[in-house]
Model the fold of this input.
Amino acid sequence: MKPCHYSCRSADHVLSRRQFFSSLAGASAFALPGLDLFSSPAMAAEMSSRQKRMIVINLAGGLSQLESWDPKPGTATGGPFRAIPTSVPGLHISELLPKTAKVMHHLALVRSLNTNLPDHGKGTYLMNTGRRQTPAMEYPVLGAVVAKALDTGGASALPGHIIISPTGSGGRSADSAYLGPKYGSVSLNGGKAPQYTERPAALAEEASICANDIRRKLNDRFALRRRTAQTDAYAQSYEQGLELMRSRHIFDITKESAKDQERYGSHDFGRHCLLARRLVESGISYVRVTHSNYDTHNENFNFHFEQVSEFDGPFSTLVTDLFERGLLDSTLIVVMSEMGRTPTINANYGRDHWGKAWSICLGGAGIQRGAVIGSTNETGTEVKEREVDAGHLFHTYLAALGVKSTARFNIAGQKVPMADPAFESIDELLV
Done:
């Protein structure tokens, strides 16, 4: 992947850590449970209305808070765009988000985020784990924690942690750390179904069934004398992989109506938002959609005019659809970046890396609709009220999903906190 001409050209924009691990994991087998959840339409509908889910829209590179959630028009740092009213009385956002402005009564803003990490790699790690990097421990990413925390132990053929981006290996990543490979992300390359989930054309269905019957008999015979956790895992992964092959259709957005496909748009981000909706409707716990690259060191305003406009339509459509389908109360939506952009405008009409005072948008699930947490000063150079860190956000996400964020995972007998115990949730943001 070549770095964009306007970006900082750091290593993070050439080959990301996630892409590296995904490339290593391309040939690994899926460890996925069965498909009993979808065997009864009535049961599926009932479970769907009660199950918690999370969709993250990752605006990679560092979205400018001043051209989105916290505009400062008429100031030295504000830039050329106006602030427009939203469906929440008294709340204004950038004019680049006219469609999102109409659904802000479903959403909330945190305008006082201070991570103080103006770095792509470190900022990404912090926003995805709720913790700062340390050589002493590798922490699982948000998607792995959510998938683990929401795992009821029931049978489901589908992975609980899916990442959709224009590029990707189609395999599992090693981003679940000590939670184990079951909760590692599955990256969908361009929104395509995961790797190795389609029977080879040269293998007839009858032959495949016969081969698997023989495999099961041999496994059962072996298990009578030398059964181990490792052999059980191998046998289970084969069975679960077969179930995933039978559910490939959930990754196919052409199954959606032509009208829906048109509403979301034919570009990658639109198609990926529609796929995200389709996946959470099918029971996926966590889906992340990436839209990039917001690293606008040059021509910040021209780029945001184009890119934020592309984000605006599909995102607002996704929020509206989740609400109309009765899924918004059980689906947490978060729009995040790894950092913000500097209030100061540089000589190239760009904004540089900034972690001291920036914003995120979120809504659904257990979030107060229309809430605005914190504020920045007149020029956006520092937090004025209710400063929060990524650790607070991590706790808040879990709490909004009905998970006790102060709970601990039992990892081989060791109690490991789900979220950084140095922080707590933003209670005034929760229902």
The two ends are 42 Å apart (CA to CA).
